Amino acid sequence: MNKTGMLFQVMTTIGTRMVVLFGAFLVSVILARLLGPEGKGIITAVLVIPTLVVTIADLGIRQASAYFIGTKAYRYEDIVSSLIFLWMMTSLISIAVVSVILALQYGGKYDWKILAACIMTIPVNLGIQYLRGIMQGRGRIGSINKVEIIKTFLNFTILLLLVWLFGMGVLGAALTQLLMALFTLGYSIKLLIGEVKIKLRYIHPLPLQLIRKGFSFAFALFIIQMNYRVDIVILEYFTNISEVGIYSVGTNLSELIWQLPAAVGLILFSRSANSDSAQAAVESTARLIRMVIPFLIVFGLFFWLLAPLLIGLLYGADFAASGIVIRYLLPGILVMVIFKLIHSDLSGRGAPLVSLNVSLIALAVNLVLNLLLIPRMGAIGSAIASSVSYSIAGLSFVWIYARRESIRVRDVLVLNREDWELIKQKLAIRRFGINKIS
To answer: Rounded to whole angstroms, what are the CA distances from 188 to 69, 140, 144, 155, 192?
Structure first.
């Protein structure tokens, strides 16, 4: 099979994502069991600000660099040099900003070592993001998958050592994030080293071009991330840290669903950035969404039925309410998969802001509903608010995408005769291959 072909990349990426999901699932269970609702709530709350700031500080440079490398708009060596310069600048500014925010919000409330560990993840995660952009622009999906596998292994191993074996509690969980990121950064550098001579120099006007192009990516992604995370901030304000822990287990487990198909968005972005035809990119994206939807529906129904049982067996009675959180979140999570795939295609073609108006409306809905429902319903109210917001974003974006690309909505959502023929053809080839081998 052609290792640069889309089918091979989709298969290997999905395989990688399954390993990553299983690892994330194990980590979530272990962390919840070892820390309890309160400890889980603390680490979730403290990491919200650094995560959001990394999204902002990234400035969309990861996507912009992938776009420029894919379209060959600038020399590869010049792009890498500019990325190093920008990484240093954004890291210093981000550390200063987050330090002030966390000191004001949590100073004296939580151990300063926990806050420091979370702050120091910022420059490391920014470095990983920029390197990922280089790999994506060069179509090195295999390298990205390797990094994800290593990161999953590190997360699981370091967590067991620090939180379980050494009993370091929330501090151990925070240090796990830092050490995992450091080792992942080192491995990413190893994969790319030797491809280009690395020189730290300012190449006018490339850094400004990366920022200008990246700003649209960053702003769109920031609004999307805000829609994912704003509920945590409001929930902590109106309830307590244990309620945040219960909600975080529900969201973490629910969001695992969109990881498998959304991982393919990585390939869509790379393919769209390197595509000479917008029509080909649209056809590929629409076909992928049509193929994914039946699996989402079946898996979603299965997960909805078993969620409370799984939570009880894996996390314990303390997290029983997380099962109800999952049930309310599921409809919105499933629709959001479609949103993410469309956004990947448009971003790869240099148009990330198409989703902005939809994302802003969805964020406003999320904010209003959270403020109305959380004081009365706690984590359940937050789950309802998020699900409604995600559904509005996903369904509206499908309609906008269809109009923009001059196709029908059903062409995005409903399997057609050609899809069925393709499925039959693939199944026939596989069956023939198996029979031939036997």
So the answer is: 18, 12, 8, 16, 7
